[in-house]
Amino acid sequence: MFGRSPLSVDSRPWYLGALGELEVAKRLAKLGPDWTVLHSVRIGDRGSDIDHVVVGPAGVFTINTKFHDDARIWVGSKRLLVNGQKTDHLRNSRYEAQRTARKLMAVAGEPIDVYPAIVLVGARSVTIRERPVDVTVLRDTELVCWLTRRAVTLTADSRDRLAEMLTRPETWATTSGASSELDLPAFVALRREVGAARRVRILWGTAGLLGGMVVAATLAINAYATLLGG
Length: 230
What we know:
It contains 5 helices and 9 strands. The chain is an alpha/beta fold.
């Protein structure tokens, strides 16, 4: 009735993260048939996962999606700040790529370059003061163009071989498979609940504002009438 959100304090970061991942997944779906995309890739047996792993003509990429609604992002060579606060985004993205490269080397028997990227969703502004050397930071709207315009580094055979390796559960050393897809119907239902609660809160806020205006107007009219009567 009063628009209470179904999200708890603990679940809200998960919800926002899922929103970002779905938005990036929708953009990655626009890549052509030469690209293979995996989502929510579990790595190891401790619950860690990589938001997206992509392989195509330009190589192998790990994508760390970050949903920062209406935030101001500042990027330096060694730091990424969100509304002035330090984050571990660069370090974590770098580590994900290194882990993936080690997994691929163990299967392929040769070094495989893996390029990390941080994809920002929902940010109000992104200021690139100095680009990190080994991690690309960009908005979700730039992602597909960035991938498709990179130089070709893999032949079709190499690309297909890597894609096949990436889809093997044993590559990631997990018994649950390479992908742990989001329960989309359940999430869509949750998203509707969150949206409905937000609309109710807006209605209550609007009603409160209008009520305050009516009270203020009534008081002003009464005061003016008193002055005229005096």
